Each structure stands twice: as structure tokens, then as C-alpha cells.
Amino acid sequence: MLKKVAILANGGDVAGLNAVIRAIKRTAETHGIECYGFIDGYRGLVENNFIRLDYNPLADGILPKGGAIIGASTNTIVFHYKVTNPDGSVEYKDLSDLCVENYKRDGFDCIFTLGGDSTQKSARDLFIKGINTIGVPKTIDNDVACTEVTFGYNTAVSVAQEALDRLHTTAETHHRIMCLEVMGRYAGWIALESAIAGGADAVLIPEIPYDINKVADSIRKRIARGKQFSVVVVSEGAVPINGEASTVNADIGQGTGISRKFSGAGEKVAKELESIVGLEARCTTLGYMQRGGTPTAYDRVLSTKYGAKAMSLAMEGKFGVLTVIKNGKLDCVPLEEVVGNNKELGAVEGGTEESNIRFVDLNDELVTTARNIGICFGD
Asked: 20 to 30 Å CA-CA from 308: which of 174, 210, 267, 351?
């Protein structure tokens, strides 16, 4: 019988994290189950640092609040955990056994893992080692496999759409090309949907390598029709034909497997378009604006549905699964399916070629819709 559960949030913050935490906590309270939260994600699991959430005033009134009241860890992988020795040297150790010991000693029956691809990869690996895990798909990129939508995505798109509305007025007033760079390392969902919602003229996404000259041609056609401005949405992972994504070296550490970060795609496109077309071009990079702040009504409802479903799955004894939306309805799939071919236990990170990332399908109705209304993809 389920008596004691815990929640952890891993990866970047998104709007809706607190709504999921609230839904799990309130469902637990309804059924007389103790609910706890590990502080700062997987780091809290390693350090055995947690607080009680049920009937705790700290966890009240959090539905509209951004971020996570229990914090979140980024680039923290318990199988390759950064440890600083007394002499100041750094090494990476597999502390997954310590996590299992903490989990069993504290008497937890289940841990809910709120996160994206890498988070759920670790959740699958910890499940194999003896921790009952249930994943909840969190990422603004909307690229978690096996589910139709992740919480936090709708809020990110709404922020990007509002930015585009504002950039339109500046572009039209000053006869400029305005580029908006949005998040989306491997999948272009934010760029694609915000481009449609914000009336962009072109959108560049990772799944469709672009020819900058074709984007320039589409802008020239607008100029010929009397439109002396254009708005272009650029996903941070956009890739030019026969080129590479814009990245910079990242000193995150060998234990994470991450050595480069995406950066500069929007600036690159703006400079090239200015040179080719002749109109002045500017780039705005939204960055963390997409993550922070209060969730939209849609994300509040979606997060609540996900949290309540996750708790229901735990009460049913269904572990090692991810809560998902399939055909518009709540469901679950084994975490084995979520990790794709990235099967190695303790693999350094998700987001690899073997990972089962949900990419934009080029036959998706959003792509078709965008093309039908004249949005250029640069292909």
C-alpha cells in the first residue's frame, strides 16, 4: 500500500512545475499519503535533502507561481555526479547506489521525476536499480517522446507570440528585418507554432536545413509588394544547408557529456539577411524569458492533469512509466520506450542521436498550415 512519495524537478525551470507539484500533493492528501519534495532535483536525492509538502503552507497558493518551490537541478546526473575532493580536485562518480540507499532508508514508495529527455533517462536507469519512478514530461521544447504535448510549452509559445506582436510594430515602423531567436535545440516546435501565432514571414527550425538565399528571396518578394519589413523566427538549433548549428564552447564539465551550447543562430541570420537584402536587420533573443513567470491557463490545467494522473498511476502500482497525452487523453508508456535506443545504463546524458526525441514531422499539419499561409522555411 502506497504510504510515502516524493517529487523532484530536474533540468531547466518551466511554467507549470508548481502546478504539477500541487496536483501530486493534493491528490496525495486526498488519499492519506505523505508527500515530500527533494530539494534541487537529483542533487537532493544524492544529498538526501527533502521537505514535507502535504499540509505544508509552503506548498499553498503555488498554482500561478513560476519556477519550482523545491528547486531544480541542471546538468546533474547521479551516474556521473560531480564531486569536489578535500584537496580541491574534481572527479565524477557513480552515486546511483547512494540514491537507492537513501530512497529505501527513508521509506519512499515512489519518486515522481519532473523533466525532459535526460531526466527520464535517469528515471529509467534508477527504476532498473530499484527505485519506483514515474515520469512527468516537462520541457518548453515539447520534444519528449511518446506524448503529444509537454507542460511549459504553451506558456513559452505564448511569450514568443507576444514578443513577435511587439517586434512587428518596430519592424514596420523602421523598415527592418526583425529576427526573434527562440529556444529549441533539436526540435522546432516553439519556433513553428509561435511563427504561426505571431504572423511571422519566415521560420527556421532544426528539422529543415535552410538556404539563407531562399529566405532573402522571400523577403525581396515582400518588398516588391510594398512590404518594407519582415519578421523571422529562428530556432536556436537552426542549421544552414551544408552547415552546422551555431554553438559555443561550454565549460559545464566532462561528467555531463555537454561541451557545447547553442548560441547565436538569430544573430547569424540577421547579419546575413541584412547583407543580402539591404534592409537593416536586428535580432532579439528571448532566452530565459520563455521559461519564467506565471503559466498560461492551458498549462495550469495540463500540469494539474499530469500531476493527478501520475499520483493515480502510483496508487495503481504502475511504476517505471511516463505520464503522457495520447490521442488527446491521459495515458502512460514505459520509460523504456521514452529513452529510445539510448539504452546504456547510466549514459551521460539524453539528447543524443540514440535518444527518442520528438521532432517536428515535416508532414505535420502545423508545417502544412505554415506553408499554406506563405511562411518561408528557407528550403
From this structure: 351
Cα(10)–Cα(349) distance, rounded to whole angstroms?
13
356 inside domain: no
Report pTM.
0.91
User: Residue 357: which pLDDT band, with cuts at 50, 70 and 90?
Assistant: confident
- State which residues form the domain around 45: 4-151+296-338
CATH number for the domain that contains residue 36: 3.40.50.450
Contacts for 327 with CB less than 8 Å, ≥ 6 apart: 148
Given the residues 54, 125, 141, 201, select the one marked as catalytic.
141
Residues 144 and 270 in one domain: no
Do 217 and 366 have their domain in common? yes
Q: Say if residue 33 is in the same domain as residue 98.
A: yes
Residue 215 has pLDDT above 80, yes or no: yes
Identify the burial level of 187 via C-beta atoms within 10 angstroms of its C-beta, where 0-12 means exposed, 13-18 middle and 19 or more buried.
buried
Question: Is residue 60 annotated as a catalytic residue, yes or no?
Answer: no
Write the CB contacts of 174 (distance below 8 Å, at least 6 apart in sequence): 229, 280
**Cell output for 109:** 514508495
Please name the residues in contact with 211: beta carbons below 8 A apart, sequence gap of 6 or more: 240, 241, 378, 379
Distances (CA, A) of 350 to 36, 83, 115, 145, 338: 26, 21, 11, 12, 11
The total number of structural domains that make up the chain? 2
More confident residue, 232 or 13: 232
Does residue 251 share a domain with residue 146?
no
Contact between residue 131 and residue 106 where contact means Cβ atoms under 8 Å apart: no
> Is 174 in the same domain as 282?
yes
Residue (of 235, 178, 242) closest to 204 by Cα position: 235
Choose among 39, 33, 31, 29: nearest CA to 7: 39
Cell of 313: 498511476
